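User: I'll paste a sequence; please echo it back and then give the predicted structure.

Assistant: Echoing your sequence first, then the prediction.
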Amino acid sequence: MINPKLKRGDRVVILHMDDDISPIPMGTAGTVTGHSVVFGDDQYSVRWDNGSNLSIISSVDIWDFEDNVNQKKKKINEITSSSSGGKYRVPIVLAAQGWEVEQMGAFTIPVSKYMNADLAYDSYDRKMERTKKQISREESFERKKSKMAKKMFSQNDGDGNPINGYSPEGATEPGTPKQIKKGANLPKSKYKEVIKNYPEEEKLMKKKRMVEDEIDKFKNLISNPEVFKHFNIPFLRRYLIAVRDSGIVNMFESSPFLYLGRERIEHEFKYKRIPDEDKFEDVLNMADQSQAEMINGVIKYLEATNKEPDLNNINRYLQRFANTVVQKYMLLF
């Protein structure tokens, strides 16, 4: 079913978004956070998994429930997975295989007479590229490491460093007993000690995340430059602050208030409880100018992009730009 009715908390997948500014990619899933009716069209606020908060509108967008989309994908995979031109075949189910006792033991047949992995690999073609002296030295070192590993099992901590001091790669940790170093004949560690000041390191990571968040916030803020170019953002910001202070709506669902105008808003709240009458009066006093600023901004954008400024285009881009203005407002707070 295309464009089913949604409610808060529903999981939805966008199949098509008619937006020239920054559309949500097809197949993106999200969670419905609110619903409103604008000019007879259902408009749903959605928190998308890719971080966007663009709303979907029944007259221009196409969506479906996430479960329905996943079910369709499953059916398609089942039908086409047999590589038989799209015809369905019953999957082959293999019977349980019996194993003999002797088949369940460890594989112990050596593949090479050398313990050293490089020497074993070099011996596969029966043409050794090393001299006998080099082979003897490498095998002797490998036997020492193997003997040491059998005596002292090596276990690593969360950072990958050996806990007990022995490393098969040939490195020793500070504090390794001298007799172990001497017995294993291992070289000194070439790696620097891992930072142990965890509180300070955690503080630095928090600062790094804060800087990264500010960078992401700035990138989102400077995206869609058409909003700052064609719209009176300072006034629209003051108007949205008034809407917020009035408490009449959740700010995630406030975009329609930018273009509804005083008469529509006044009629909408005629029989509803208003948290702050004085602040609501400020909203009503600014609503008509907000509507005019939004319409003028849309017309400027349409003319700048060589699009026809007819009623359909104005209504469509009015809703899109209203959502974008609200997003920029939220980034400024």
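Residues 222-331 form one domain. Residues 82-86, 184-189 have pLDDT under 50 and may be disordered.
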